[in-house]
């Protein structure tokens, strides 16, 4: 199976597990202080793990098929400190740091993008994530130069196909 096929399968499996999770429908509903072992039992293995200054982040990404990336942060003793859905317009301006962030910072915050693309007026790559802002499907674009430095970001609506004409 290709890496994109595995990513789709992992995203669909995580969505299914979270839907069946009953009282723990989403990672951000898990109580602070919960041991990491319990979170792993409830949510399964994360799509990625990242070392933090004082602990570890488990990341549950639903990209490329889904619209969420959950970051579940633990302190040095393995207790939950914070769990949140990272793909939020309210957080982009607080977190993304153009001219300071690197590829590694992007991955630690948002995980691998749904896709990357090039544009004629920028020599780097544009990393793209799908997310939902209420009922509106949106895209986060982060501009990464050839040296791996974030140069900017923007958001836009995700183009939706035209409805099928029933005639």
Give an account of the 3D structure.
The protein has 167 residues and is an alpha+beta fold. The protein has 2 domains: 3-85, 2-Layer Sandwich (Beta-lactamase Inhibitory Protein, Chain:B, domain 1); 89-157, Beta-lactamase Inhibitory Protein, Chain:B, domain 1. The protein contains 4 helices and 8 strands. The protein has helices spanning 3-20, 36-43, 89-95, 103-110; strands at 48-52, 55-61, 69-75, 80-85, 115-119, 122-133, 136-144, 150-157. It has a 4-stranded antiparallel beta sheet with strand order 1-2-3-4, sandwiched between helices. The protein has a 4-stranded antiparallel beta sheet with strand order 5-6-7-8, covered by helices on one side. The longest helix is centred in the first third of the chain and has 18 residues, at 3-20. It starts with a helix and ends in a 10-residue tail after the last strand. The model is unreliable at 16-24 (pLDDT under 50).
Question: Care to give the gist of this entry?
Answer:
This protein has 167 residues and is an alpha+beta fold. The protein has helices at residues 3-20, 36-43, 89-95, 103-110, and strands at 48-52, 55-61, 69-75, 80-85, 115-119, 122-133, 136-144, 150-157.
């Amino acid at each position: 199976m290709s890496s994109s096929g595995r990513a789709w399968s992992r995203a669909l499996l995580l969505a299914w597990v979270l839907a069946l999770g009953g009282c723990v429908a989403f990672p951000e509903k898990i109580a602070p202080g919960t041991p990491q072992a319990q979170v792993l039992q409830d949510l399964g293995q994360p799509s990625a793990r990242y070392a933090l200054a004082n602990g570890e982040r488990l990341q549950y990404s639903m990209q490329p098929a889904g619209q969420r990336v959950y970051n579940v942060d633990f302190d040095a003793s393995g207790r939950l400190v914070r769990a949140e859905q990272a793909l939020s317009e309210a957080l982009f301006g607080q977190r993304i740091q153009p001219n300071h962030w690197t590829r590694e910072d992007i991955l630690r915050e948002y995980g691998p993008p749904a896709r990357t693309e090039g544009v004629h007026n920028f020599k780097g790559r544009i990393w793209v994530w799908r997310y939902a802002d209420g009922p509106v499907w949106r895209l986060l674009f982060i501009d990464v130069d050839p040296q791996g430095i974030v140069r900017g970001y923007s958001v836009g609506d995700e183009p939706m196909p035209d409805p099928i004409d029933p005639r």
